[in-house]
Amino acid sequence: MSSAHTHAIDPLRDLKLIEDQVDLCVAQANAFFETKFTPPSCNFRQKGRAAGTAHLQKNEVRFNPFMYQQDPASFIETVVPHEVAHIIIFQIYGSKVKPHGKEWQAMMMKVYGLKPDRTHQFDTPLPKESYEYHCSCECYQFSKQRHNRAQKGVEYICKICKTTLQYIKTNKNS
Ligand SMILES: [Zn+2]
Ligand SMILES: [Zn+2]
Fold this sequence. Notes:
The chain is an alpha+beta fold. The protein contains 5 helices and 6 strands.
């Protein structure tokens, strides 16, 4: 069974829940604007740090299963309307307006009764690898980019003990 904080995704069942919410959000927009918008297709292909993305030209919304599983109910309540609002605003204005501009914000508040937050509250995945460095007082995790710079000779110095950080080992996070 699922624990309090995660639940295993059943792709068909969970995608259906998301599709139902997408349909509901489009229906609410139809009622509000007294028109008929084209519902976007949706899938679980979003990866990385975004909870979802709206692909306006393709009329497609991608959702992040890693974040969905952390809290399906709040994901459905917040992320789905956020992305659908991008799709609707594009169908009304094309690319003449900013993605999180006043039109999108007004839609979030008036149509969905939500705070127009640009960002989500979900945990983001750990990078696959991090690089551990030590000074004489602390332990630091470097990103691959930073590690590469250090290996090319860029010196990173601890603000507290003023010693140069030394590479110790690579950590795999999976
Ligand atoms: Zn957005
Ligand atoms: Zn130090």
